[in-house]
Specification:
- With 251 residues, the protein is α+β, with helices and mostly antiparallel strands.
- It has one domain.
- 46% of the residues lie in helices and 10% in strands.
- It contains nine helices and six strands.
- The strands form two sheets. Strands 1-3-4-2 form a four-stranded mixed β-sheet, with helices on both faces. Strands 5-6 form a two-stranded antiparallel ribbon.
- Strand 3 and strand 4 form a beta hairpin.
- The protein is globular, with a radius of gyration of 17 Å.
Length: 251
């Protein structure tokens, strides 16, 4: 296992060196150590859905200079987007993330969409020279635009029916369109899935949409928002196509 991890570290560094920028979904972590407990268990995202969701993304962004790599055997609990000086985009997804008990089909798709967001979400940018979108902007894009694109190719991503009264009320604006309503519920449930994962990393209580972050930044935060709550608030904002939250974005 140690040799395997060292090889993956070397491979990641090689990719990073040969590209202009590399951006992870979440901070570096050692959650990969737990993968030994999950690798033989039934996960919400099995290897088939792991590959199907990535193929849905490839089909949705087929006219772009995009490569999506998936390594089911890799225990890394993260995802990354690398953009080189020629504008070629390389996204890496890992089985260790998919096998986490917190991660659902919808949550996994949001992570993939976040990485796509670094390439396609627009301003604000981490770096104006490379036009790589900021972390919060990538989160916003994941539910505003990307999720529905992939869900149109992968029907399993639009099948959540039961949810909390809060989520059903928020999604009621889409009651006149069954697909839009289903995607709204799926995005918000997926956001909670990722909130649970991030709170595990930070050893904190899982966030809820009912208790939004009250931080108001004095200038737009380009790196990770300060709290997990802020990130799921951003998923909510993207889902409902409303303004980006003030916990990371300054109007």
């Amino acid at each position: 296992m140690r040799v395997y991890r060292l090889f993956n570290v070397f491979l990641f560094l090689l990719i990073t060196i040969t590209t202009a920028s590399a951006h992870n979904f979440m901070p570096d972590n050692d959650l990969w150590k737990d993968d030994i407990y999950y690798i033989n268990l039934k996960a919400a995202v099995d290897s088939s859905m792991f590959n199907k969701i990535m193929q849905g993304a490839r089909d949705s962004y087929s006219n772009q200079k995009l490569t999506i790599n998936g390594d089911w055997s890799d225990p890394t609990v993260n995802a990354s987007c690398n953009v080189n000086s020629d504008g070629n985009i390389f996204i890496n997804m890992y089985g260790g993330l998919a096998r986490r008990p917190e991660v659902t089909l919808e949550g996994f798709t949001i992570v993939l969409c976040h990485e796509l967001g670094h390439a396609f979400a627009g301003s604000p940018y981490l770096n104006s020279d490379t036009h790589v979108s900021a972390e919060g902007q990538a989160d916003y894009y994941s539910t505003l635009t990307c999720y529905s694109k992939i869900a149109s190719k992968v029907t399993e991503l639009s099948k959540i029916v039961n949810s909390s009264d809060f989520i059903k009320a928020k999604c009621s604006r889409y009651n006149d369109n069954q697909i839009n309503y289903a995607n709204c519920v799926a995005k918000l449930e997926g956001g909670l899935s990722i909130g649970r994962l991030l709170s595990t990393l930070d050893n904190e209580t899982a966030p809820q949409y009912e208790t939004p972050d009250t931080i108001v930044v004095s200038e737009t935060e380009l790196s990770y928002p300060a709290t997990t709550q802020c990130r799921i608030d951003t998923y909510l904002a993207g889902t409902l196509a409303i303004s980006r939250p003030a916990c990371w974005f300054r109007q």
